[in-house]
Amino acid sequence: MAQSVNITELNLPQLEMLKNQLDQMYVPGKLHGVEHVLIDVGTGYYVEKTAEDAKDFFKRKIDFLTKQMEKIQPALQEKHAMKQAVMEMMSQKIQQLTALGATQATAKA
After folding, report:
1. What is the pTM of this model?
2. Looking at the UniProt record for this protein, which Gene Ontology cellular component terms does it annotate, in alphabetical order (predicted)?
């Protein structure tokens, strides 16, 4: 996101770009007047800002998301360790049940 805002540093009157269409499809387009840009602020809302304000917005957003990731990383690591322990326990139980079933099958035969 922040890289696309740096287009103002190119000082070109027209700039080739790819315009996001329907979240999956990109079509070529030309950008006229790079002094103001539209920013998707979420839930379908767009805000017109100057390029400098857009850079500040994206810097704040990146900082916020980085802090949020740092907050949840320990919890995710703990959850992953718990998942691994459960998977190991289930694997041991399956092996025990398989061995017990094989023992019972040979005893009946």
Report:
1. 0.53
2. cytoplasm; prefoldin complex
